[in-house]
Design brief:
The chain has helices spanning 34-38, 45-67, 86-103, 112-123, 163-173, 181-187, 213-225, 228-233, 235-261, 276-288, 305-317; strands spanning 2-7, 12-20, 23-27, 30-32, 76-82, 107-111, 131-136, 141-147, 151-157, 265-269, 292-294. The protein is an alpha/beta fold and 335 residues long. Bound molecules: 5'-O-[(R)-(carboxyoxy)(hydroxy)phosphoryl]adenosine and zinc ion. Zinc ion binds next to helix 4.
């Protein structure tokens, strides 16, 4: 079967064409709205919805063209139903359902977070649940146990900000453009991770919860007590220290969860899984402890259409793809 995946939950308009047996990404173009939002220091939902509306058809066309198929070769569509911004989600859902009706094919509403984890599955299609998952994105930071049949049990999540949000907000305090995660990683690559002793919240607790709001306050205090020239001069070391604080929290709590659940496979997904330091630290731990480590290719860590189609394919292979033309109460778009 040929699948079209559509992702429009936040600030990327993304479409992808995948084949499902064996699973293979045939194309995965996207339009990033980052420049349109950077001016405001974060995503503006109305601007995002409008941009999706303008770009979704051209991106879907590009996906079909790059895959070397005809529109009529598509057998099914998978689109994101949430979590995400309502306007942007509505654009993706309307487009998916309209196209599905036109082509007389099914459209499946998929969960964005399941999509992030399915991006990791693309690199290791052989892995079988149960396994521990870590989702780290701009909106979510959560450890979830996945058991056969897509049975999910939350092991712990953030009490306040998500890891990506911590990168972005702390970056903003340091004068970096939104989204700051990749920039902090780049600037801090060769920096001294011990330059500033930023706090690691809840480390003394034997739970699997995260908290990043204290870190945000610590960065704010740091910018108030050091002059801009000093910060500019030492930005590499400050970024390295900040990145280490966030990554350290993620790794410590993931290890706690691995020990508690006794899982032998770790699946990681979400935009922050593109972070090289996080990848190194987790890979290192898993390698030393005989744990299978499953993480998306870096290009598939952040939002994309392939992960949404992959989520549908993964469910289909397990006989758990049931939400044909699913209509949520807030989506008055019955097909
Ligand atoms: O999954 P994603 O693309 O969108 C959401 O579902 O939220 O994640 C975006 C988040 C942003 O907060 C961004 O700063 C962060 O992922 N991010 C990174 C890196 N690349 C993206 N954070 C740290 N290091 C990176 N290399
Ligand atoms: Zn995402």
């Amino acid at each position: 079967m040929i699948w079209l995946g559509i992702e429009s939950s936040c600030d990327e308009t993304a479409c992808a064409v995948l084949q499902d047996d064996p699973v293979k990404v045939l194309s995965n173009p996207l339009y990033s709205q980052i420049d349109e939002h950077a001016l405001y220091g974060g995503v503006v939902p109305e601007i995002a919805a409008r941009a999706h509306l303008q770009k979704i058809a051209p991106i879907a066309e590009a996906a079909v063209k790059e895959a070397g198929i005809a529109l009529t070769d598509i057998d099914a569509i998978a689109y994101t139903t949430g979590p995400g911004l309502m306007g942007p989600l509505l654009v993706g859902a309307s487009f998916a359902k309209g196209l599905a009706r036109d082509l007389q094919i099914p459209a499946y509403g998929m969960n964005h977070l399941e999509g992030h984890l399915a991006a990791a599955w693309l690199t290791h299609p052989e892995i079988e649940p149960p396994f521990l998952t870590l989702t780290v994105s701009g909106g979510h930071t959560e450890l979830v146990l996945e058991e056969p049949g897509f049975k999910y049990t939350s092991i712990g999540r953030t009490r306040d900000d998500a890891a990506g949000e911590a990168f972005d907000k702390c970056g903003k305090l340091l004068g970096l453009k939104y989204p700051a995660g990749a920039t902090i990683s780049r600037l801090g690559k060769d920096g001294n991770r011990k330059f500033v002793d930023f706090p690691r919240a809840l480390h003394v607790h034997d739970n699997c919860e995260f908290s990043f709001s204290g870190l945000k306050t610590a960065v704010l205090r740091y910018t108030e007590t050091h002059d801009p020239e000093f910060i500019q001069k030492n930005i590499g070391d400050i970024c390295a220290s900040l990145e280490d604080a966030i990554v350290d929290s993620l790794v410590t709590k993931t290890i706690t969860a691995l020990k508690k659940t006794k899982m032998k496979t770790l699946v990681v997904g979400g935009g922050v899984s593109a972070n090289a330091w996080l990848r190194t630290r987790l890979q290192d731990y898993c390698g030393k402890h005989g744990i299978t480590f499953c993480i998306p290719e870096r290009s598939l860590s952040t939002d994309n259409g392939a992960m949404i189609a992959a989520a549908a394919i993964r469910r289909k292979l397990q006989g758990k793809l049931t939400s044909v033309n699913e209509v949520k109460p807030w989506m008055p778009l019955a097909v």
